[in-house]
Amino acid sequence: MQLSHAMSLLDAARSKAEHLGVRVSISIVDAAAWPMAFIRMDGCPLGAIEVSHKKARTAVLFQMDSADFATIAHPDGAAYSLENTNGGLTSFGGGVVLMGPDGTMLGAIGVSGASTEDDIAIARAATRPAG
Amino acid sequence: MQLSHAMSLLDAARSKAEHLGVRVSISIVDAAAWPMAFIRMDGCPLGAIEVSHKKARTAVLFQMDSADFATIAHPDGAAYSLENTNGGLTSFGGGVVLMGPDGTMLGAIGVSGASTEDDIAIARAATRPAG
Amino acid sequence: MQLSHAMSLLDAARSKAEHLGVRVSISIVDAAAWPMAFIRMDGCPLGAIEVSHKKARTAVLFQMDSADFATIAHPDGAAYSLENTNGGLTSFGGGVVLMGPDGTMLGAIGVSGASTEDDIAIARAATRPAG
Amino acid sequence: MQLSHAMSLLDAARSKAEHLGVRVSISIVDAAAWPMAFIRMDGCPLGAIEVSHKKARTAVLFQMDSADFATIAHPDGAAYSLENTNGGLTSFGGGVVLMGPDGTMLGAIGVSGASTEDDIAIARAATRPAG
Prior knowledge:
Four copies of one chain form a homotetramer.
Chain A (H helix, E strand, L loop, with lengths): L2 H18 L4 E6 L4 E6 L7 H14 L4 H7 L22 E5 L5 E8 L3 H12 L4
Antiparallel strand pairs in A: 1-2, 1-4, 3-4
InterPro entries (chains A, B, C, D): GlcG_carb_metab_protein, PduO/GlcC-like, PduO/GlcC-like_sf
Protein name (chains A, B, C, D): Heme-binding protein
Pfam family, one (chains A, B, C, D): HbpS-like
């Protein structure tokens, strides 16, 4: 994935957030979990900065959306304590894997600052553009 | 335990993983929890690297398989919060203690990247060679 | 400082980097040292990601460019070990303070990935737009 | 780079170490600095385990051998404090970049446990096989 792609994802996510009337942080990481691009919208809670990054990181490291990771990395899940590895991961939604046309993982987007439902909707708006 | 022994454990674990058609990270640590050998199979999720090490570390530090550790180091267990000591430990299966012929602990193997069931089977394939 | 301002600084810095033919990471932080926006240009060394952030953070935390911070936070400077505070700071150039028209500090920009000379030139191209 | 390649590098490095009569730790990381394979030779000092990893990581993150990194990331160098970024890097030799036939960086090898001179010789024996 190149920076131009990451920037278009940021733009799409920000548009969705504005449409929903919420203020979020948005992080894009590559397939090895290294940061590519990031923005914090005006008024976004400061705590959401790191969360947006950890959501994207979680999605890449385990090749699944953070909402799915949450079902296993939880006291009631099959792999409780997994959320405490790799510097701390995120067991709720808002981190979404980016897949290429050929099914390879390109990276991930992480969104934080709104409700989890809205965070997920914003991430998906970026990763699943209207056809 | 010597490196040659650790390498043979890695080979046995990798063979089992290939037989199961899964891609895992495999860590061998000595009886003092220091890393001896490690491999990450092609295609293994990146998050599994650290997890394989923590599983082996957990097994050595408490002299029990991580699946047994999970029953006590859990919000519902007798020693909740134990999993948050020693830099973070692993409360699910895939870390297996290596015992010598005389019953002394030689170290441990940790496997991560597949289902917990498969991770355990891979670790046991290495530690309990066919007779 | 608002996100729109931070994005224009990113654009100006990226243009300068492209003009110089170098590939850098660029971080913008606000006056409280919290990240506002970030990009990593294609081909930038991965180690520069964190460095760009630490340069911007250093500039804000001590209200001076990181090149000036370097003269005091150094084994030969007046405040050796200062560079080891606040999670680790940066004792070389590329972090530049952003000042408002009224002389208040708005935040900082950090650039890393090229030579220190180029990193500084890129940061200044963003903070001192042609009149 | 695939695991089979990393394993052949480990073997070549170990052979060189045995030839020199020294005991080292050897780490291979991919182009994004994620661990691929690791061994600790019998008798290697325990402190060398992490050092071998940090040498390889340093080489990848700044796309240069750690011996070259040392000339800039040093109190007398152009970028003092750079060695304290990215979780701590290594300002002496023994981390060597692995380049592919087409000039792209494949990853790096890090060797620690002997003299720096020997560590470098071992890393180079792996990365520059006899023709």
